Amino acid sequence: MSLDAETTIERDPGARRTAENVSGYLSASAIFVSFLGIFWHPLRLIVPSLLIALVASGMAKGRIQLAAVLIGGVSFILGLALAVATGHALW
Questions:
Q1: What sections of the chain are H helices per DSSP?
Q2: Helices 42-59, 63-86: inter-axial angle, 10-degree rounding
Q3: Radius of gyration for the alpha carbons in the chain, expressed in angstroms and rounded
Q4: What's the confidence (pLDDT) of residue 28?
Q5: For the purposes of burial, counting CB atoms within 10 Å of the CB of 13, is it exposed (0-12), middle (13-18) or buried (19 or more)?
Q6: Cβ 53 vs Cβ 72: under 8 Å
Q7: Mean pLDDT, 10 residues at a time, over the chain (91 residues)?
Q8: Phi/psi class of residue 8: alpha, beta or left (left: φ > 0; alpha: ψ in -120 to 50)?
Q9: Crossing angle of helices 42-59 and 13-39, rounded to 10°
Q10: Domain limits of the chain?
């Protein structure tokens, strides 16, 4: 079998949908952990959730992926400020 310039290899559309679904679940879990991290150990929880949100946004582009990254950033700042103001542990 030879490949010409006119021959196209079509990708499986199901694979893209699977990546979008996994990315949505990762984004939702990152949002949940970011909110949890505001009130309990911000550095221990929010930094990994931000990394998960960035991986999810690399897998698929969408509103929930953008929301996960933005919520993670705001939660990081708010969690650190709240921990310093109340005297609780950051780590």
A1: 13-39, 42-59, 63-86
A2: 170
A3: 19
A4: 97
A5: exposed
A6: yes
A7: 56 75 96 95 94 95 95 96 90 78
A8: beta
A9: 160
A10: 31-86
Provide the pLDDT for residue 90: 78
pTM for the structure as a whole: 0.80
- Per the CB < 8 A criterion, the answer to whether 53 and 65 are in contact is yes
C-alpha to C-alpha distance for 37 and 47, rounded to whole angstroms: 9
Dihedral sign for Cα 37, 45, 71, 68, please. negative
Cα 68 from Cα 47, distance rounded (Å): 12
Alpha-carbon separation of residue 42 from 9, 12, 39, 60 (angstroms): 46, 40, 7, 26
Contact 19, 61 (CB under 8 A): no
Q: Which residue has the tokens 């990254």?
A: 69
Residue holding tokens 């929301």?
Answer: 67
Half-sphere exposure for 21 (CA within 13 Å, toward CB): 6
pLDDT reported for residue 89: 82
